[in-house]
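Re: Re: token formats

Sure, here are both.
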Amino acid sequence: MYLKKFFILLSILLLLSIEICAANLNITKLSNTNNKINIEFNNTLQLSDFTLENNNLISPFYENKGNKHYFFYFLNRDFKTNIINVINKKETVNNNSKGKIEYKINKCSIVKNPKTILAFMSVIFNDDIEINCNILNGKYGLWVAWPSIKGKDKWTKLFDIKDKNLKDEIDTELLKFYKKKKNDTKKL
């Protein structure tokens, strides 16, 4: 009887902690220029080039072989609705939010016959946003390529982590994860 109550209480506490963790991404900056929406969360994560179509927030994407590949995914419907409400001026921007940014590596798909791109990966931030990225092999070695698009003369970032320490930490974890998965794949 006591054990059952303990597990029920533990389950409630776990659900509350998940909700608290997921609720700490706040919009700290929003701009809308030429129908391109740029959003900053917690003065740290910058996402660019969204569009709002029929009250639906559309992530930037690239097309390959007739398929759309989105750079960003909102994993929580209420979170996405809140962003749309802020864009539509139904809610306010909290410029002073410095909530903790939590992340976890979600996927790692190793390319079988790589040229430049070695792996497709994604990172989930605060259980609300999933960002796709790639592991590339450049002239200086392996590096993480976050979403960007090529213009006429240069590449434009669609995603940036303003906190250099956090960015370095995440990049390091992604590269470690990739190397481990690649080594595990070789053993099969």
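Second one below.
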Amino acid sequence: MKITSIHQFTPVLAMHDAIGETVIKIQKRLKILGYDSKIFVEKPIPQTSKIGIKYTEYKPNNSDLIIYHHSIGSELSDFVSDLKVPKVVCFHNITKPHFFEKYNKTLSLEMEKGLSELQKLVKKFQYVMGASDYTKQELSKLGFKNILPFNYFIDLERFNDLKLNSKIIKKYEKTTNVIFVGRKVPNKKIEDLLKVFAYFKIFNPNSKLFLLGGSWSVESYNEELSQWMEILHLNNNDVIFIDTLTDEDLATYYKISDIFLCLSEHEGFCIPLVEAMFFKIPIVAFNSTSIPSTLGNSGILLNHKKYPEIAEILHIITTNDEIKRRILEGQNERVKHFTNEKAEKILNDNIEFLLKKL
């Protein structure tokens, strides 16, 4: 059987999203390799309406290979499973529903549905791709036998020639800056970042916490964060919340930050860790889910959440140049693993393998 088309299916195609950006870059790579390649979506959105095609328009062909991106409960699961064409699933991990149950029951049920659908995919898909050791272990426990590697396409080069925001630099160049990049959602444990930062301010009163990332249908969680701010005697001068920002501003905040702190309890991969490596920011992160896999042997991994001790670790790193140098040494090596060239090679190898097996 000769494959001439490799199409992708994804529930939604969003820009500035790890899955969406990777899907688009995979399509570009597939076209370079000479394949016809389209992106079919369950829920078209205006942002990518010229790229994503409603999945109901797909017409199966024996010369097709399908890549199905599974990341949440979706009508696509049954649709793609029933297609009589060669196919592979790319699993992007799913946040555990219990994190959202208290704040958004509908979203929690969608996650639960996605995990339930993943269990069914074991019998429908012979091959699956996963980007982290944690994800691969989850897939193996479910019964998937043929688990292929996968690298996200992370466009770090987009930061190279950006003009930094001089106003942001001027405002924060003399403060000690802690940064976290990611949505304000329950699994990211933003409240724990606030608790650590409250202690860190005892060591360094002239410090700021940058929390860059929007929310995700969890208004009551954000209300809780406001309550934590009051309890911890923090204000909007101490903690800078920014929901949306340009690449120029994002690069600026990274550039002026002294340490990246991640206390998330569920990550499928965590691309901001790679971005922090790129900007040469020492990383301190909680040892959970995919975080150790993304960091490799770099950064500082925490096996506990003793807030005063974490604050002291941050203080030591931000005041000891030799310790900082050693941490960055490891991160500088690790970031080389996440080039687009490597992602392309892994994708090429997977396609060659699948074409021989399917």
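The CA atoms of residues 299 and 327 lie 6 Å apart. The mean pLDDT is 95.
- S.
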